[in-house]
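Shipment paperwork, digital attachment
Item: protein structure file
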Amino acid sequence: MRIGEVARRSGVSARMLRHYDSLGLASPSGRSSAGYREYSADDIAAIFHVESLRALGLSLREVGQALDDPDFRPADLVSDLALRAEARIAREQELLSRLRQVADAGPEDWEQVLGVVALLSGLESADAGSRQRAALTVSGTDLPSDALVAAMLSEEDENVAGALRWAVVRSSDDVVPLLAEALGDSDAHLRRRAVLALVDIDSDASSEALRTVVADPDPTVRSRATQELAVRGDTAVIPLLVDRVIDGVADVDASEALAAAGDQAMVVGRLVSALDSADAGIRRRIAQALGEVGGPDAHATLLRLVDDPDRGTAVTARYLIDSQRE
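Attachment content:
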């Protein structure tokens, strides 16, 4: 079969067939009676072999190496090609994400496009100082909310994260759904950053999001959420904060949150009810919490604790009473 017919039947151009021939990848091995070179069935099979390898992403040089190597292992080739494809897809996904972020920012001219690109590049810099400078220049309308929240959640440097949190909280878009979604992430550090931002957003939506993590396995996440909800007057978290005082888990912060809780009678009642079965250490912490909460009911209980059999509790109660008089 001569080259023209092979080209028509195979879909490989005559020019490419000649190129394969010059490289020694697939050459016509026969001759017609008139002396023309012809492709045999084996030669045509070699052409399709080359085409198959090219379709997998190999260069012609790599195709030649694969065909010439007697120890060639197809499984190794496929694994290597899969890794290359994954890397290529990751680059394309990164480019697509960047383009969408720029588009979502709604730039109206090239100057704004370049400004958004510069901000995104700055926030992705390996240098913390560069990221912080970029974070400090971000305004609520410079970047789409998803890009801004993503940058904040992934930031490891505390100073940069603080600047980004400031920008997120003041964003013109509703960022609460994005932060609420982050609260379900398996990474506790990411959940902590999301909680810190939600604490700074005073809205019903942020309160609802914070309620979803009052029992979070990470103590920092649940502590910040319950404390903020108490400050916002959510009495449902008072028992959780009292339990924290009893258990000695961030009890000082819990006491401060109880002091800011809306229902002081409920707070004192919960603390007093725990005294009867409490050991000395717990009674001391309860006394400290009562001193923080204040008010006549708390004061009356502290007067009773002045005569507590545990000297540490009695001294703590006396000190707190005297401090309230000053």
